[in-house]
C-alpha cells in the first residue's frame, strides 16, 4: 500500500482542492529532531540523564497531586497533564472543582491533540509543557497579528473566497481567537486528524 493510500482521505481531498496538508506525526518528528521547542539539551550525551530527571520529576509531581487528592487513577490523562502544569507553574487552584480558566482550556485542547500523537505519557507531558510555554512566552505578542496575516494569505491563495467572506460579513465572525490561541487544537474533529488506511 502506498504512503498516499494510507493517509486520511480528508488529507488527500484537501490537497486536491488546494489546501496543503500536514502529517501531524511527521511534523512532530521533524520538530523533535530539530528540537526547536527546547525539549532536549544541546549535548546528545546528556539526553539519557535529562530524560531520567524528567521521568523522576513527572513521577514526583504526579505523586504530589495524588497526595493532595487533585488526581486519582480515574482522572483523565489530559486533566492530569493540566494539574501537573498548574502545580509546576504555581497556578493550581484551591479545588479541582473550580471552573477552568480560558488559558486552562487552551492547555487542555493542545494536550488532547498532542495525546493523539505521542504514546508515552512522560514524553507527552514534556512536549505539551514546552509547547505551551513557547506559545505563552515567545509567540503571545504575535497572536494579535495573525488574523491580518491570515487574511493576506487567503487573499493570495483564494481571493474569491476572501471577497465572498467579506461580502457576507463573515470575516469578522471567524473564530480567530479560538484558532490561533489553541494553534487549531480542538478546532477540527479528531477523526479528521487521524491517519487511517483506505479500504
From TrEMBL:
Q: Would the keyword Cytoplasm be found if you checked this record's keyword annotation? A: yes
Keyword hit for Oxidoreductase: no
Keywords assigned by UniProt?
Answer: Cytoplasm, Cytoplasmic vesicle, GTPase activation, Membrane
**Where does this protein reside within or beyond the cell?**
Cytoplasmic vesicle; Endomembrane system
- Where it mainly occurs, coarsely classed, is cytoplasm
A single cellular component GO annotation? endomembrane system
Against InterPro entries, the record matches this protein to:
TBC1D7 (IPR039842), TBC1D7_dom2 (IPR043039)
Please list the GO terms describing molecular function: GTPase activator activity
Biological processes per GO annotation: negative regulation of TOR signaling
Q: Which PANTHER family match?
A: TBC1 DOMAIN FAMILY MEMBER 7 (PTHR13530:SF3)
Task: Specify the protein name.
Answer: TBC1 domain family member 7
Q: Which organism is it from?
A: Rhinolophus ferrumequinum
Its lineage reads:
Eukaryota, Metazoa, Chordata, Craniata, Vertebrata
Amino acid at each position: 500500500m502506498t504512503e498516499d493510500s494510507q493517509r486520511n482521505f480528508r488529507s488527500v481531498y484537501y490537497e486536491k482542492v488546494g489546501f496543503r496538508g500536514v502529517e501531524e506525526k511527521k511534523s512532530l518528528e521533524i520538530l523533535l529532531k530539530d528540537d526547536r521547542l527546547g525539549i532536549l539539551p544541546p549535548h546528545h550525551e546528556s539526553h539519557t540523564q535529562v530524560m531520567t530527571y524528567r521521568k523522576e520529576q513527572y513521577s514526583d509531581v504526579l505523586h504530589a497531586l495524588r497526595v493532595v487528592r487533585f488526581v486519582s487513577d480515574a482522572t483523565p490523562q489530559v486533566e492530569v497533564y493540566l494539574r501537573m502544569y498548574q502545580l509546576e507553574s504555581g497556578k493550581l487552584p484551591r479545588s479541582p472543582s473550580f471552573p477552568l480558566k480560558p488559558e486552562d482550556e487552551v492547555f487542555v485542547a493542545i494536550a488532547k491533540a498532542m495525546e493523539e500523537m505521542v504514546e508515552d505519557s512522560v514524553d507527552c507531558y514534556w512536549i505539551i509543557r514546552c509547547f505551551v510555554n513557547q506559545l505563552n512566552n515567545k509567540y503571545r505578542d504575535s497572536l494579535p497579528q495573525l488574523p491580518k496575516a491570515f487574511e493576506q494569505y487567503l487573499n493570495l491563495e483564494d481571493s474569491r473566497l476572501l471577497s465572498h467572506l467579506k461580502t457576507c460579513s463573515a470575516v469578522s465572525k471567524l473564530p480567530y481567537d479560538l484558532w490561533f490561541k489553541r494553534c487549531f487544537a480542538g478546532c477540527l474533529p479528531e477523526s479528521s486528524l487521524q491517519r487511517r488506511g483506505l479500504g
